[in-house]
Amino acid sequence: MVLKSKEEISKEKKKLFDGITQEISFADEKGRFGRLERRRVVLDLKYFPYRFMKESEKLMGRASTTLMYLVGKRCGKDIYDGYVEMGHDKDGALKLSTAGMWYFGWGLVDIDIETGEAVIYDSFEADSFTINKKRANTPTCHFFRGVISGIWAAYSGQECYGDETMCKAKGDKYCKIVVRATG
Q1: What is the CATH number of domain 50-181?
Q2: Which ranges of 61-183 would DSSP assign to H, the alpha helix?
Q3: Could you give the 3-state DSSP secondary structure of residue 29?
Q4: Region class of 8: left (phi > 0), else alpha (psi between -120 and 50), else beta
Q5: pLDDT in tens, the chain (183 residues)
Q6: Quick one: which of 79, 128, 164, 182 has the fewest CB in 10 Å?
Q7: Do residues 73 and 146 lie in contact, with contact meaning Cβ atoms separated by under 8 Å?
């Protein structure tokens, strides 16, 4: 194999995609995409999280939903804590946490601080399911309910659990996650 330079590879890839789309690439000439001082990736909802869930179910059974929930919960806490570390108060960090979901295309999220309920319009997780199947029998947003739970736990200072009571993948107009304190 002849080793090509990064520049040669970049030009080759750009030329290929210029031939199929007028859209501007997310990635720079190094093949990287960044926002808010971090490297990011863009994934097709056909593959993530739906395909990830299906493959993990083959290995782990129902435990795969718990895995997605727990990963989401850690992410939610980290997201919230990141805004606090930037100097935002707890209410500002909560608002920025949900604004970040809009910014990165996760969906439109509104959390009611009185009830601990979150409404999510156009959840990427529910949409990933509906892209691959027509309709779900049960809620599908395990990662998202974890994220909301993690944000809520960091915001409230209480351990909690999130339950998805409505899901767009089941045919509901939106997803609804209810967070309850557990400790």
Answers
A1: 3.30.1380.20
A2: 63-85, 90-103, 124-132, 142-156
A3: coil
A4: alpha
A5: 899 999 999 999 999 889 999 998 888 888 888 988 899 999 999 999 999 999 999 999 999 999 999 999 999 999 999 999 999 999 999 999 999 999 999 999 999 999 989 999 999 999 999 999 878 899 999 999 999 999 999 999 999 999 999 999 999 999 999 999 997
A6: 182
A7: yes
